[in-house]
Write a structure and sequence with these properties.
- It is a single chain.
- This protein is mainly beta.
- Helices cover 13% and strands 33% of the residues.
- The protein is built from 14 helices and 54 strands.
- Strands 12, 13, 14, 17, 18, 19, 22, 24 and 25 form a nine-stranded antiparallel beta sheet that branches.
- Helix 10 packs parallel to helix 11.
- The relative contact order is 0.10.
- Bound molecules: beta-D-galactopyranose (GAL).
- The site of beta-D-galactopyranose has 9 residues, from loops.
């Protein structure tokens, strides 16, 4: 494809610079020449859809946006895992406030496409709205539309209908590429309206494919990647493209797939999910380690990790699986893990860093891949209920640091440093002369030792399995730091003064020495701090975490600009928010969250959240005199540190009371099991051929549900035949993925339930590609001549992912074969799965249960004639029972309450429930498997001020009694503030 001139100038940020300076222009954006020529300087302003053209280039150190170095500190969230667009803004604002400058998003093909040629980007699928919201929030976007995404979603993001098509996915097969192009056309039509290059939005980077290692470098792989590259460019996407290698294998480096890739505008990235028990690996630009050794898999592009583990997904519980719940992921990959691994990444020259996940969300409906359950909380820094956890502290500290202390965008490795018991990385910025030391403790006990630096030997303590950052020579406004053993968090200018903030662990003694050739006038504004001026140096010591924030004002001396030194432990640091406005930079201290700030004349308008009672303190441009918080002016005073501070405390968030659930009504269903049920409207299952990877049994027919257009949730089969006289046994082979099951009836009599076994811990088996056979003996009483009906319900879980590019998403779902012992009846099969896709809630909201097909999950359904029941219940039944109730919430309008539904029962009872809130399928509870018991009900789907309808579709086996046991609402979080929520 020919790049237009406009496109090329957008692509060639640093190449253009190289040209202007006489470099080897045209050969791509990555020359060493460009590297030397771009000095360290302030990062670009936070992005917005500002209508201006921007260039996105790069050299080996970092991205160059409009010629300025940008370190990308990104977090992953999936709009499709939060089906309430208003809440996208909430999560994005939390990310921005806590130091992220970018959000990375998959776009899931299956979520948008119910059928070939049909695409939906409205409502909860409104990609345009998401991209607008990200731009309004001031975040860059890294867009990842696949076509394959993996992501622990059904078929790795491939639409259900694709599983029944010809051709091998993830290759250059023409049928597959035709479908892919259709998808990319749809996505790109929206994406191209939000490109940062054009000033229309904030899309900064765009990924094609995902961890594609099926055909590394062979003709098929090259043709496929090249096709995707050219398609995306032809659609007008002119930001740098990249691919995420499944490890530092060097797959798909620049130039590896011909057309496009070698021309610049192509970055190399690799993903990392090291186990927390592992020593953080060395990779990227520095160090001889790594799978392939050598300096880097791509020495001319900046170190880029498109996915680095910020938690981990949790599998189903039960005997063979070992899902323990997400508290465990959060415990094993805690804040110290983040410091240890992410600081190592920075020390390895990675300047594009995305944490997967930063907000995991919910795999609602039939979205989750078979391996995972509904919650995709991931143990991430922001939990599924949108609460910021203790894991936000390192993200906040490192994120703001990378954006506000420019030295970190261009680091070279410097002389080796050894310190007893620690691994030390020593780096310098060649332009500023600042030195950075990452000191990591891989042992379990704290280490206190001397660490030799260019500014002398420093005494440091690093807790076990943790890491810290030491710096020397940093410019702090107009002054220079000699060294600090506390970690720098930010340095900014607010009004008349410079402010530098340092952080560390509670209980740590922060030590900082400032070069002061002329004796300054020092004011200690909080009692914990101690200082002494000696020998042209100001020595400051602060025990962290004694009070809240510790302030020391350094005035006069060699400069007229005062420097305010701030010290905060982790808990305090996450309540300090820098914010750039057109009138100048603000620093806000106190609230749980700062969402937005604006300066209007002498008024500072802030919006945000408060949890505990707090004062609010603001440093900002000269002339500010009034503080308006969430629309209300607050009385303030001016402090000695030059801030504006509320005179009183904002009250803590009020209590939120949730009602007990009662008034349940019940009805059993599965009339499909009965011999007299009218299935004449069902599809005949009589095909003989299939594109599935599961073999069609000799003589057929094909019983695979996807072949008949049923892709999600439960599927029914009715096989009619005459004469069961000699019939001894019915055996039914089926395939569902993890935790699936099959139930059968003959002439309405239960034959039994068979659960998909989990044979061993082998990972391919875990992916669920196996088929099982259920054999049911037939009782004497059911043997006779005449017409018989075999009814079978298969709870399909979802399609396998296709991580290895072997078309595993095409493994059959549903019945695969039927065989009989003692007789050989001629069976004619009919099949029924989900009804036409819900136009609002989408194709994955409901499956093929009778109640789902009849709308029993919907709020308007009339259940008045259903039987009144109360919980706990214990009944023995094979099949499906529905329970419905309504409840009213009246959460105060200015309180953001996060609510969940909790189910508890005797874990021996074999039943499961699909949870429908106002018609939305909020997930699947499996009582005897777990580990999930609480399901997040997102506001917007949940009416926090109004009436809600809850429906539970309970599928019970006959082997045990079935609940529900206790069903209740649980408060998962609350804050005064929040975002306005539009009902979905
Ligand atoms: C990566 C993959 C992601 C996700 C992750 C594990 O390998 O690219 O999509 O599956 O693993 O959560």
């Amino acid at each position: 494809m020919a790049l237009s001139r406009r496109t090329f100038s957008a692509l060639a940020g640093s190449a253009a610079l190289g040209l202007a300076l006489g470099g080897s222009g045209g050969s791509g954006a990555s020359s060493a020449f460009a590297a030397r020529s771009v000095p360290t300087g302030p990062a670009p302003a936070p992005p917005s859809a500002d209508g201006a053209r921007h260039t996105i280039g790069y050299d080996r150190y970092s991205l160059l946006v409009d010629g300025r170095r940008l370190v990308v500190w990104s977090g992953e969230m999936h709009p499709f895992r939060l089906p309430s667009p208003s809440l996208w803004r909430d999560v994005l604002q939390k990310m921005r406030a806590h130091g992220y400058n970018a959000v990375s998003v998959y776009v899931a093909w299956n979520y948008h496409s119910p059928a070939p040629g049909r695409y939906d980007f409205t409502g909860v699928r409104d990609l345009d709205l998401f991209l607008r919201t990200a731009a309004e929030t001031g975040l860059y976007v890294v867009l990842r539309p696949g076509p394959y995404i993996n992501a622990e979603v059904d078929a790795g993001g491939f639409p259900g209908w694709l599983t029944a098509t010809k051709g091998t996915a993830r290759t250059d097969d023409p049928t597959y590429l035709r479908h892919v192009d259709e998808w990319l056309t749809q996505v790109n039509r929206i994406a191209r309206k939000h490109l940062y290059t054009q000033g229309d939005g904030t899309i900064l980077l765009y990924q094609i494919e995902n961890e594609y290692d099926a055909h590394p470098g062979d003709a098929t792989g090259r043709a496929y990647m090249s096709h995707l590259y050219q398609k995306v460019r032809a659609d007008g996407i002119d930001v740098p493209l990249f691919h995420n290698d499944k490890g530092r294998n060097g797959y798909w480096v620049p130039g590896s797939f011909g057309t496009g890739g070698e021309k610049g505008g192509w970055l190399y990235g690799f993903d990392g999910y090291p186990s927390p028990s592992q020593t953080p690996p060395d990779w990227g630009t520095f160090g001889p380690g790594g799978a392939k050794g050598g300096a880097s898999a791509s020495p001319s592009t900046p170190g880029f990790v498109p996915e680095f583990g910020g938690g981990w997904f949790d599998p189903w519980g039960g005997a063979w699986f070992d899902g323990k719940g997400y508290a465990e992921s959060r415990r094993t990959r805690d804040a110290a893990y983040e410091r240890r691994f992410y600081l190592t990444n920075l020390a390895n020259g990675l300047t594009l860093h995305n944490v997967y996940m930063t907000f995991g969300g919910t795999s609602w409906g039939w979205l989750p891949a078979p391996v995972v359950y509904t919650s995709y909380d991931y143990g991430a820094a922001i939990d599924e209920a949108r609460n910021v956890t203790a894991k936000i502290a390192p993200m906040h500290q490192l994120g703001h640091l990378l954006q506000r202390v420019p030295d970190f965008a261009k680091l070279d490795r410097a002389a080796e440093v050894k310190a007893e018991g620690l691994k030390v990385y020593h780096l310098t910025n060649p332009d500023t002369g600042a030195h950075v030391y990452v000191a990591r403790n891989d042992g379990t006990d704290a280490v206190t030792t001397d660490l030799p630096t260019d500014a002398g030997s420093l005494r440091v303590t690093v807790p076990g399995k943790d890491a810290t950052l030491l710096t020397t020579g940093l410019k702090l406004g107009e002054r220079t730091l000699k060294y600090a053993t506390a970690e720098p968090l930010l340095c900014l200018t607010a009004g008349r003064q410079d402010i530098a903030l340092f952080t560390g662990r509670k209980g740590q003694m922060a030590e900082l020495v400032l070069k002061c050739p002329v004796e300054p006038f020092v004011m200690r504004l909080d009692p914990e701090a101690a200082w002494v001026y000696d020998n042209d140096e100001l020595h400051v010591n602060v025990p962290l975490g004694q009070g809240g924030l510790t302030r020391i004002l350094v005035q006069k001396g060699e400069t007229e600009t005062p420097l305010l030194l701030l010290f905060a432990d982790d808990a305090t640091a996450v309540r300090l928010f820098p914010y750039d406005t057109p009138s100048g930079t603000l620093l806000v201290y106190g609230p749980a969250l700062l969402r937005h700030a604006e300066v209007r004349g002498s008024e500072v308008h802030l919006t945000g959240d408060v949890t505990g009672g707090t004062s609010i303190e603001v440093w900002g441009p000269r002339g500010i005199g009034t503080l308006v918080w969430n629309g209300r002016a607050l009385p303030t005073r001016v402090t000695m540190s030059g801030s504006l501070m509320t005179t009183g405390l904002l009250p803590a968030v009020p209590e939120v009371r949730l009602p007990a659930l009662g008034g349940w009504r019940m009805r059993t269903e599965n009339p499909e099991a009965g011999p007299g049920f009218d299935d004449s409207g069902w599809k005949a299952a009589d095909s003989r051929t299939s594109f599935s990877t599961t073999p069609v049994p000799d003589g057929g027919p094909v019983l695979f549900a996807d072949d008949y257009g049923f892709h999600y949730g439960d599927v029914w089969y009715r096989g009619s035949f005459t004469d069961s006289t000699g019939l001894e046994e019915v055996s039914l082979a089926y395939s569902t993925g993890t935790q699936g099951l099959l139930m059968a009836w003959l002439d309405g009599e239960p034959l039994g339930t068979h659960r998909m076994p989990v044979p061993d811990k082998d990972t391919t088996v875990r992916q669920g590609t196996w088929t099982a056979t259920a054999a049911f003996p037939v009782r004497e009483a059911l043997r006779s001549s005449g017409r018989h009906v075999l009814s079978v319900l298969v709870r399909r879980m979802q399609h396998d992912q296709d991580g290895k590019g072997l078309d595993t998403h095409k493994a059959a779902r549903g019945l695969t074969a039927a065989a009989f012992k003692g007789a050989d009846p001629e069976v004619s099969w009919r099949i029924q799965g989900e009804a036409a896709a819900d136009p609002v809630r989408g194709p994955m909201n409901s499956g093929g249960l009778y109640g789902e097909r009849e709308g029993w999950h919907l709020p308007g359904f009339r259940d008045r004639d259903w039987e009144a029941v109360s919980f706990p219940r214990a009944a023995r039944y094979q099949g499906v029972t529905w329970y419905r109730t309504t409840f009213r919430l009246s959460v105060p309008a200015d309180v953001d309450a996060s609510v969940g539904l909790t189910l508890q029962d005797d874990p021996y009872r074999a039943y499961r429930a699909q949870i429908f809130l106002n018609g939305w399928n909020m997930g699947q509870y499996i009582n005897d498997v777990g580990p999930q018991h609480t399901f997040v009900l997102p506001n917007g789907v949940l009416r926090t001020r109004g009436t809600n309808t809850l429906a539970l579709a309970v599928l019970s086996e006959f082997t045990t009694l079935s609940g529900p046991g206790a069903v209740s609402l649980t408060l998962l979080g609350r804050a005064s503030g929040g975002v306005p929520v539009t009902p979905v």
